[in-house]
Amino acid sequence: MTQQTGLEALSSESRRFEPPADLAAKANVSADAYEQAAADRLAFWAEQAGRLEWATPWTEIVDWQPPYAKWFVGGTLNVAVNCLDRHVAAGNGERVALHWVGEPDGDTRDLTYAELLRQVSMTANALTELGVQAGDRVCIYLPMVPEAVISMLACARIGAAHSVVFGGFSAQALVDRITDAGAKVVITADGGYRRGSASALKPAVDEALERCPDVTAVLVVKRTRQDVAWAEGRDHWWADLVDRQPESHSAQAFDAEQPLFLLYTSGTTGKPKGILHTSGGYLTQCAWTHWAVFDLKPESDVYWCTADVGWVTGHSYLVYGPLANGVTQVMYEGTPDAGGRDRWWSIVEQYKVSILYTAPTAIRTFMKWGEDLPGGRDLSSLRILGSVGEPINPEAWMWYRRVIGGDRCPVVDTWWQTETGAMMVSPLPGVTSCKPGSAMGPLPGISVDVVDGEGRSVGETGGGFLTLDEPWPAMLRGIWNDDSRYRDTYWSRFPGRYFAGDGAKWDDEHVLWLLGRVDDVMNISGHRISTTEVESALVSHPKVAEAAVVGASDETTGQAIVAFVTVKGTVDDLESGGDEFAQELRAHVAKEIGPIAKPRQIVISPELPKTRSGKIMRRLLVDIAERRELGDVTTLADPAVVQAIDDTMGAAAAKG
Ligand code: WT7
Questions:
Q1: In the chain, N or C terminus with fewer CB closer than 10 Å?
Q2: Is residue 435 helix, strand or coil?
Q3: Distance between CA atoms of residues 262 and 257, nearest Å
Q4: Are residues 547 and 409 in the same domain?
């Protein structure tokens, strides 16, 4: 994270930015919402659920048998109908749903709500032809193309749960996720455009499916026109199968608790968790928070969320929230520097984007690239800026507001997780006077409590662990195939409360500051990766004896992965030199998990620092990785080990 001076940190805790008066006057949500929700939380959520179209009304708002919740019991709805059909029926079929912008310049597609409905209907029919039924799981492994959104909604339409796997994950990661979910159909593409060139996706699916015998069909989008291997009978081109389907599909309503999707995320063990989300409560909270936190005016706003659909932000705030609200949005395929480092700002200018939702890591990258790039574009259409994924340092918050927001746009820092499904902690742009770097406080209808190590509430001021002490509509319903892990991970550390894994503190004005993970989960550019997962990948290499992985502070990505490795035999035995071996290990991790998990640095050391009881001293490794003053090493079995590692790092740093 960018170093702050003490002065900045101090001033950010006391400095406030008031909501713009014109925005506050016309805001969707006023301060009353907090009072209303505090008076009757369940009635508040029932009112928000009423913003959706239900086929059958619910009979009970929540059935809470801790830690299991059912929301809007007895209600039925179709999620895709709520995202498409009802907007068309309301006369908004010609409104653009997606302004899709491909990475290669000039490669664009606009899809209206009516057109999106037509394509989703055809895809729903295609999936049905492939034998997909309500309750089945479909794996989606696609680049950022409209077919990703279409596929997700088509699954929702027929009551099948999707499991989207980010395109940056490897064949092995696909095998794990397909197998755990029991998916029988995979939707992929020949490849996608990334950093100026075409990269392949289908080969990873082909490799994965050698180990997934239950997958019966693969639907393939043609995006890059590169050659692909073809399994006759199993593989179908999208254009062949989808385009010949009937253009309408009559959607059935499903129970409010019908599984909508699984999304795999890293935990503190090596195996990713399949987070299960269902329909009615999830859509209620996604739609309401998107409308309230961005003060959304669907008739006039152009919204842009820069997240990939492979992550939860893409699910909740690119697909379900915005489409449920019927807004026009931008969807961009590529990287921020494709076609020039001002690509994003040219998109904002061209499409007159009014709401931008992105991650601190992107903002810090733009800070490095300089003010001239956004300064050279007309960004006056912007009115609200959102941040998500990791703590935003006050300096980045201020830069975002001043340089991108022209000092007039409120910045809303939104805290939530894959597990929470939707935003939980955030300011409201027409209500809250914001402190730079703070997510301020829980949204109406959400209850958070900061507790100490014994689970006692710290009260109005003070630091500790962030917990949620009341159920919320979009909460995860469990971990797929692993109920005991669900109970252990979230509900056992502080009985009766959901433990988020984050540290937090209330300042002396009872404003909430998120302090990052307190477990072995790293946050790299807003992406969650577990230390154990990377360690398992490293030790699966035949030459690695032991590995310890830590997240070290990084100016741009928030944290960066640093791995300490010992080898079988001695370092001198390595055929290749240490540097080459480190490269080999990096490639090995990319193969096991995906390029996103490649360590920034691999330190090959003679031993790992351990306590006398044999526990690896991670805290110390973080210090070493960040090249800080070393802490107390007296509990080390062998203090010389630390010196040896530190020397290796010093030598590496000197080499540059
Ligand atoms: C973890 C969840 C929320 C969607 C993207 C990440 C961190 C997220 C913030 C924020 C401070 C944040 C937390 C959380 N995080 N947003 N505004 N301020 N930290 O979803 O991969 O499930 O990761 O991201 O540590 O636990 P995820």
A1: C
A2: coil
A3: 13
A4: no
Q: Which residues of the chain have pLDDT under 50?
A: 1-10, 656
Final residue of a structural domain among 504, 536, 557: 504
Q: Does residue 601 sit within a domain?
A: yes
Residue 293 DSSP symbol: H
Q: How far is the CA of 388 from the centre of ligand 1 (A)?
A: 7
Name the residue range of residue 535's domain. 525-655
Residues 479 and 560 placed together within one structural domain of the fold: no
At 14 the pLDDT is: 78
Q: Is this model's pTM higher than 0.90 or not?
A: yes
Q: Are 275 and 476 in contact (CB under 8 A)?
A: yes
Mutate to test the pocket of ligand 1, among 416, 423, 521, 559 (most ligand atoms within 8 A of CB): 416
| Domain annotation covers residue 7 | no
pLDDT at 576: 63
Q: State residue 575's pLDDT score.
A: 64
10 is a domain residue: no
For residues 330 and 351, the answer to whether their CB atoms sit within 8 Å is: yes
- Are 314 and 344 contained in the same domain? yes
d(CA 126, CA 257): 25
**Are residues 88 and 167 both part of a single domain?**
yes
pLDDT tens figures, 261-276: 999 998 877 788 999 9
Q: What is the pLDDT of residues 340-359, one digit of tens each?
A: 999 999 999 999 999 999 99
Cα(394)–Cα(110) distance, integer angstroms: 37
Ligand 1 atom nearest 500 alpha carbon: 26
Minimum CA distance residue for ligand 1 atom 2:
417
Q: 557 and 500: one domain?
A: no
Q: Give the CATH number, domain containing residue 529.
A: 3.30.300.30
Q: Are 639 and 633 in contact (CB under 8 A)?
A: yes
CATH of the domain at 161: 3.40.50.12780
Task: Give the separation between CA 514 and CA 503, rounded to whole angstroms.
Answer: 6
329 lies in the same domain as 442: yes
Domain count, the chain: 2
Of all protein residues, whose CA lies closest to atom 21 belonging to ligand 1?
A: 528
Please report whether residue 228 resides in a domain.
Answer: yes
What pLDDT, on a 0 to 100 scale, did the predictor assign at position 615? 81
- Smallest CA-to-CA distance from 497 within 456, 437, 549 is with 456
Are 309 and 186 in the same domain? yes
Q: Are strands 462-468 and 498-506 parallel, antiparallel or unpaired?
A: antiparallel
| Distance from C-alpha of 91 to C-alpha of 312, rounded to nearest angstrom | 30
Let me know if 628 is exposed, middle or buried by CB neighbors in 10 A (0-12, 13-18, 19+).
exposed
Q: Is 415 in the pocket of ligand 1 (CB under 6 A)?
A: yes
Of the residues 475, 504, 533, which one is the last residue of a structural domain?
A: 504
**What pLDDT, on a 0 to 100 scale, did the predictor assign at position 11?**
58
User: Which residue, judged by its Cα, is nearest atom 8 of ligand 1?
Assistant: 389
Q: Are residues 492 and 530 in the same domain?
A: no
State residue 453's pLDDT score. 95
Length of the chain: 656
∠ Cα 508 422 180 (to 5°): 125
Enter the tokens of residue 136: 């089945």
